[in-house]
Design goal:
alpha+beta, single chain, Muramoyl-pentapeptide Carboxypeptidase, domain 2
């Protein structure tokens, strides 16, 4: 990999990002098929909450963030494992950051397979809250919109602010 050029490395990051979402999707569908959607969401929430901590620790270390501020969090959100394939929009407001996901591969795959939209708000909140709190324990997250909410121009949108 050390011999790859920048364009190849970016393509490889896209592949890794798709791979993690594919693995999560297969895992989730197996749980859903065996135990039902409600139990799958419960387990998925726990898994993504733990993953958010691990993911944030690695990104925090990579970016050399101590106790992050809003600018640090905005930068860290760019490195979410699924960011490169999700067309995220990260907007800095006066006292907050808003993350909007414009492409959602898991939701698109569910729709294509006939399973319908997955109510992922609880899972997203668990993941992004643990991620943000790992960057700085004073961060809070508020869901602006996420399924099962009605979908508009974005799949989901989250506001981050310091307590």
């Amino acid at each position: 990999m050390k011999e790859l050029v920048k364009e190849e490395l970016i393509k490889l990051i896209e592949i890794f990002s798709k791979n993690i979402l594919t693995l999560d999707g297969y895992w989730f569908l197996s749980i859903e098929d065996r135990f039902g959607l409600e139990k799958a969401i419960e387990i998925d929430r726990e898994v993504w909450e733990k993953f958010g901590i691990s993911e944030a620790r690695r990104i925090k270390n990579f970016l050399k963030i101590d106790e992050g501020n809003l600018n640090d969090l905005a930068k860290a959100l760019e490195f979410l494992s699924y960011a490169i394939v999700s067309d995220p929009l990260i907007e800095k407001k006066h006292n907050s950051i808003v993350l909007s996901i414009r492409k959602c591969r898991p939701q698109s795959a569910r729709i294509r397979s006939g399973r319908g939209i997955f109510p992922c708000k609880e899972v997203g909140l668990a993941h992004l809250s643990s991620f943000a709190k790992t960057i700085n324990p004073k961060f809070k997250v508020r869901c602006i919109t996420c399924p099962p909410d009605e979908i508009s121009e974005v799949w989901c949108s989250w506001e981050f602010y310091l307590e």
